[in-house]
Amino acid sequence: MKKKITIFGSTGSIGDSTLDLVKSHPEKYEIVGLTINNNYKKLIKQVNSFKPKIVSINDTESYKKFKEINQNQSLKVVNGKDCYDEILDYKTDMVVAAITGSTGLMPVVKAAQKGIPIALANKESLVCSGSLITSIAKQNGSIILPVDSEHNAIFQVLDSKNRSKVSKLILTASGGPFLNKETKDLVDITPEQAVKHPNWSMGKKISVDSATMMNKGLELIEAHFLFEMPHQKIDVIIHPESIIHSCVEYDDGSILSQMGTPDMRIPISFVLAYPDRISNSVKKLELGKVKKLTFLEPDLKKFPCLELAYEALKIKKSAPTILNAANEIAVAAFLSSKIKYLSIPRLVEKTLNKASFSNINSIKDVIEIDKNSRQIATSMVISGKY
Ligand SMILES: NC(=O)c1ccc[n+]([C@@H]2O[C@H](COP(=O)([O-])OP(=O)(O)OC[C@H]3O[C@@H](n4cnc5c(N)ncnc54)[C@H](OP(=O)(O)O)[C@@H]3O)[C@@H](O)[C@H]2O)c1
Question: How many Å apart are CA 5 and CA 42, to the nearest integer?
Answer without folding.
Answer: 18
